[in-house]
TrEMBL record:
The organism of origin for this protein: Ornithinicoccus hortensis
InterPro entries to which the protein is assigned, alphabetical: UCP026631 (IPR014529), YdbS-like_PH (IPR005182)
Protein name per Swiss-Prot or TrEMBL: Putative membrane protein
Keyword terms of this UniProt record: Membrane, Transmembrane, Transmembrane helix
Region annotation Disordered: where it falls in the sequence: 541-566
Residue intervals passing through the bilayer: 21-43, 55-73, 218-240, 260-287, 394-413
Domain of life (superkingdom): Bacteria
Domain YdbS-like PH: 71-149, 441-516
Pfam families (alphabetical): bPH_2 (PF03703)
Low complexity bias: start-end ranges: 541-551
């Protein structure tokens, strides 16, 4: 275990780095920039520019004063067993974290932090998403504190961490998409962005992935990028009225554009929007994922570092990782891209942490298998749920068609539209519904590996969850009225990791019981009634099905639709 840094060697109370007296007021001013601008350019037009300027000045001075309060009122100390943080002026808060329960220590540095040599430290104990923040310490001091806290946790809980060592199958990342043997430790495959083999860095790090700038081609296909572009356009539109523009020139330009062919106008606007979308989404990708590295550390943790303006170093203890989630939005799926998340207990946002941005699907699969320490879960063929499930997907996808068609018919009656308008609207939505139903069923399935339960679903957003079978703490079988009529059910595996449940939708009820018993042999036996051929699942009533002896898995029933590659 590394020696404790200076701040951890004594019971004395410490304050944050004095340079925060510069950071906090500036950050407060930035957060108040929008109201100050509104006061200057908006309110100033009605009450006079002098009054608006005075109000903006008062707001700026208040921001400087109140920005100093956090530094004055925050203090922290380390005891032999705890980290204690006191903060607050009027309402005092006392936060404590047992040092032997520390599960994550994340480092974050904004651009201003980096200019001043500061780093924000976030300490998590894994109980929930709450983290204790020390904003901020010196850069070297923060790095030493991170090593000390994680090293101390490793010594205390090395038995738990040892359960997920790095020597299991899948510890070496393949150098090709097919998972072939590595060609040389530490080398880098330019086609995938994944190191060839187990790159041992500095003797105690194994690099799993690093940013490859060929991945920029996936940036415009991410739904998050589309949302950011829309937000930028929305914010920009709020300031158009305050820009001094020659309206006569704009009107003349618009008259010229309107005089051209409609197809030219529409094509030009589409081209402008497309270029703006590509440029802004690419810029956002670079800012967020600059210098990305995914590293497995010797102490049994995964560390993800990234960021251009604000650098983030997120640590996830591997002993708390219970699976992964691979997400493929529709646009991203069209170019064979995906995103990868870990499912863990008490870390990340809602138990999930993104470790790979939009990137080649093969890279996500390789890194995911390395994290899982087992190959195949992200690439295996999944079992389909049969014709009744397929019919349900098509029927569900047409509900929107029924609603829209009813609205179109109502509008046509009151607005005297021709009959073909609602007919055309209904036909269009019906075709879209058919495609969605087809995609829903094509992407719906489940499977089992020696260590993991695999479930997949979604049409516009396809998600494959891989959950460790040892991490399943219970089962819930749900049936709606329409599912009961078709003999279908939704099987929910409950867990302490990630979103705390993994759903497998619309599979035959007997198949759901067999799957649950195969994934966790013996867990359902406590519900057995009479002979082993009768089993009761809470919430589903009496279910006919064979429950095999503990330790034996049930052979899958004949699948009328066979198998499909997802």
């Amino acid at each position: 275990m590394p020696p404790p840094p200076e701040v951890a060697r004594t019971d004395a109370w410490h304050q944050l780095n004095p340079k925060m007296l510069l950071v906090t007021p500036v950050r407060t001013l930035i957060s108040l920039a929008a109201p100050i601008l509104v006061a200057l350019f908006g309110i100033g037009r009605g009450v006079g520019s002098d009054w608006a300027a005075r109000g903006a000045l008062i707001a700026a001075v208040a921001a400087l004063i109140f920005g100093m309060i956090p530094w004055v009122t925050t203090k922290y100390r380390f005891t032999d067993t705890q980290l204690q943080v006191h903060r607050g002026l009027i309402s005092r808060n006392v936060l404590t974290a047992p040092l032997d329960r520390v599960r994550s220590v994340d480092l974050e540095s904004s651009l201003l932090h980096r200019l001043l040599g500061l780093t924000k430290v976030k300490v998590g104990t894994g109980v929930d998403d709450t983290q204790i923040e020390l904003d901020a310490l010196g850069k070297e001091e923060a790095a030493q504190l991170r090593r000390y806290l994680l090293g101390r946790s490793e010594v205390v809980g090395q038995g738990t961490a040892g359960a997920r060592g790095t020597g299991a199958a899948g510890a070496g990342v393949a150098g090709t998409a097919a998972g072939e043997a590595a060609g040389g430790a530490g080398s880098h495959d330019p086609t995938t962005g994944v190191p060839d083999g187990a790159a041992d860095l500095d003797g105690d790090e194994q690099e799993l992935a690093r940013i490859d700038w060929s991945w920029l081609r996936f940036a415009p296909f991410s739904l998050s990028s589309l949302a950011i572009v829309a937000a930028i356009f929305g914010v920009g539109s709020q300031f158009i009225d305050d820009i001094d523009v020659d309206l006569s020139a704009v009107e003349g330009a618009w008259e010229w554009v309107a005089a051209q062919a409609l197809i030219v106008v529409v094509g030009s606007l589409t081209l402008v929007l497309l270029i703006a979308w590509i440029a802004l989404s690419t810029l956002n990708y670079v800012v967020q994922w600059w210098n990305l590295r995914v590293v497995r550390e010797r102490r049994g943790t995964l560390r993800v570092t990234r960021g251009l303006l604000t650098t983030n170093a997120t640590t996830v203890e591997e002993a708390r990782i219970r699976g992964v989630r691979m997400t493929e939005a529709l646009l991203l799926r069209m170019v064979r891209g995906a995103e990868l998340f870990t499912l863990a207990t008490g870390v990340g946002s809602g138990g999930t942490s993104k470790i790979l941005p939009p990137s080649p699907r093969a890279v996500d699969q390789q890194v995911g298998h390395t994290v899982l320490e087992e190959d195949g879960a992200l690439t295996k063929r999944l079992r389909r749920h049969g014709p009744r499930s397929r019919m349900r997907q098509f029927v569900q996808a047409q509900w929107n068609t029924v609603i829209v068609l009813a609205l179109a018919i109502t509008a046509a009656v009151f607005l005297s539209w021709p009959w073909w308008v609602p007919a055309l609207v209904g036909l269009g939505f019906a075709l879209i519904g058919l495609w969605i139903g087809f995609e829903e069923y094509r992407n719906l399935g489940h499977g089992l590996t020696p260590r993991y339960l695999v479930g997949q679903q979604g049409s516009l957003l396809r998600q494959r969850h891989v959950l460790e079978r040892d991490g399943i703490i219970g089962w819930n079988v749900r049936q709606s009225f329409f599912q009961r009529r078709r003999g279908l059910a939704t099987l929910v595996a409950t867990t302490a990791a990630g979103p705390e449940s993994v759903e497998i939708r619309d599979l035959p009820l007997t198949m759901a019981v067999d799957l649950a018993d195969s994934a966790t042999p013996g867990l359902l036996r406590q519900f057995a009634v009479g002979a082993p051929s009768q089993s009761v699942v809470s919430g589903a009533g009496v279910v006919a099905g064979s429950v095999p002896p503990a330790g034996e898995s049930t052979p899958p029933a004949a699948d009328p639709d066979g198998w499909s590659e997802r």
